[in-house]
Write a structure and sequence with these properties.
Elements: E1 7-9, E2 15-17, E3 21-22, H1 28-41, E4 45-47, H2 55-65, E5 73-78, H3 85-99, E6 104-109, H4 119-131, E7 135-141, H5 145-155, E8 161-165, H6 173-182, E9 185-189, H7 202-211, H8 215-225, E10 229-230, H9 237-244, H10 253-260
Parallel strand pairs: 3-4, 4-5, 5-6, 6-7, 7-8, 8-9, 9-10
Antiparallel strand pairs: 1-2
The structure holds NADP nicotinamide-adenine-dinucleotide phosphate (NAP).
NADP nicotinamide-adenine-dinucleotide phosphate binds next to helix 9.
C-alpha cells in the first residue's frame, strides 16, 4: 500500500516522513492529547526536545494513540547545558526515560552555542549514542555552514539532518545549498512562520485560492517541493488534518518563484542567529 506521507532517505540509510508534528508548548494532558490526535490524523514523525519539557507528554501521547512504536519516528534534542561528552550521554538517556522510549529515531544538537565551543564534543557523544543503539540517526539543529564543516572535519561523521528556521520569510537558500553539497537533509522549524503575518500575505493567499487550498497548506506544500522536512505544530485535530492534506496538488514553478521572493535577510521570526544565540 502506498504510504500516506512520502518519506526521504537520509545519508545513513534511515528514512523520515517529509512532514511531522511539532510539539513546542504542548504540555501535560492537553499536550498528550494533541500528540495522540496528531498521530491519529496521520502524523508518524513527532518532534520534541529536552528543553521543551514535554518529552513525558509526547511519550504519553504516543501511548494513547495506540499506534505501535515501530510505525513512528520520534526526534528529541540535546540542550546547550549538556554539551560535554559525559553530560550529553546522560542527557540522551534521561530523554529516553522521560519519553518512556527505548530509542529515538533521531537526536540532534539543539543549538551550536559557538561561544561555549563544545559542540564537537557533543557531536562525538551523539556518534557514540548511535553506535550503542540509543538513537537511530543523528543530526544537528541551527548549525551554520561553519559549524557543519567543523564537526565533519573533526569527526569524519556528517550529520544526517540539520533542523533550521525556514519559512517563506526566511527561506535559507544558501544554507540549503550547503546541505545539498554534503548530503544533509534540511528540516524546517516554524515552517508556518507561526501562522501569523503569513496568513494574510497576498501572494500566498492568491496561490491558495487558485488551488482551492488554505495558506498553511500552500506553505507546507512549498516546504515539500523545496525538499525540506517540515514539522508544523497544531493543537487542533482539524488543523492537524488540514496540514497533512498537501499531497494532492502541486505548485507551479512560477508559484514557487513567487513564494521565494518573500524571503528577507531580516526575516527570522525572533532574530535568533545561531552565531550568537545562547540557550542552555
Ligand atoms: N530546533 C529549534 O530550535 C526549534 C525552534 C522552534 C521550533 N522548533 C520545532 O518546530 C515546531 C514548529 O514550529 P513552531 O511551533 O514554532 O511554529 P509553526 O509550526 O510555524 O506554527 C505553529 C502555530 O501555527 C498555528 N497553526 C498551525 N496550523 C495552522 C493552520 N492550518 N491554520 C492556522 N493556524 C495554524 C498553531 O496554532 P494551533 O495550535 O491553534 O493550530 C500555532 O500557533 C515546534 O513545535 C518545534 O517542535 C524547533
Amino acid at each position: 500500500m502506498e504510504k500516506a506521507i512520502p518519506e526521504v532517505t537520509l545519508n545513513d540509510g534511515t528514512t523520515l516522513p517529509v512532514t511531522g508534528l511539532g510539539t513546542y508548548g504542548l504540555w501535560g494532558n492537553a499536550g498528550a492529547n494533541a500528540v495522540s490526535s496528531g498521530i491519529n490524523a496521520g502524523y508518524r514523525l513527532i518532534d520534541t526536545a529536552y528543553n521543551y519539557e514535554n518529552e513525558g507528554a509526547v511519550g504519553e501521547g504516543i501511548k494513547r494513540s495506540g499506534i505501535s512504536r515501530e510505525e513512528l519516528w520520534v526526534t528529541s534534542k540535546l540542550p546547550g547545558r549538556y554539551h560535554t561528552y559525559d553530560k550529553a550521554m546522560v542527557a540522551i538517556q534521561e530523554s529516553l526515560y522521560r519519553s518512556n522510549l527505548d530509542y529515538f529515531d533521531l537526536y540532534v544538537i539543539h543549538w551550536p552555542l559557538p561561544n561555549q565551543d563544545l559542540y564537537v564534543e557533543a557531536w562525538q557523544a551523539l556518534i557514540d549514542a548511535q553506535k550503542w543503539g540509543l538513537v537511530r540517526s543523528i543530526g544537528v539543529s541551527n548549525f551554520l555552514p561553519e559549524h557543519l564543516e567543523r564537526i565533519i572535519q573533526e569527526t569524519g561523521v556528517t550529520p544526517s539532518l540539520n533542523q533550521v528556521e525556514l519559512h517563506p520569510f526566511f527561506n535559507q537558500e544558501e544554507q540549503r545549498r550547503v546541505h545539498a553539497e554534503h548530503g544533509i537533509q534540511t528540516q524546517s522549524w516554524s515552517p508556518l512562520a507561526r501562522a501569523a503575518d503569513i496568513l494574510s500575505n497576498e501572494t500566498v493567499r492568491k496561490i491558495a485560492e487558485t488551488h482551492n487550498k488554505t495558506v498553511p497548506q500552500v506553505v507546507l506544500r512549498w516546504q515539500y517541493q523545496i525538499g525540506s522536512v517540515s514539522i508544523p505544530r497544531s493543537t487542533s485535530p482539524q488543523r492537524q488534518r488540514e496540514n497533512l492534506a498537501i499531497f494532492d496538488f502541486e505548485l507551479s514553478e512560477a508559484e514557487m518563484a513567487d513564494i521565494a521572493k518573500l524571503t528577507r535577510p531580516d526575516g527570522r521570526l525572533f532574530g535568533m542567529d545561531p552565531a550568537t544565540h545562547e540557550e542552555f
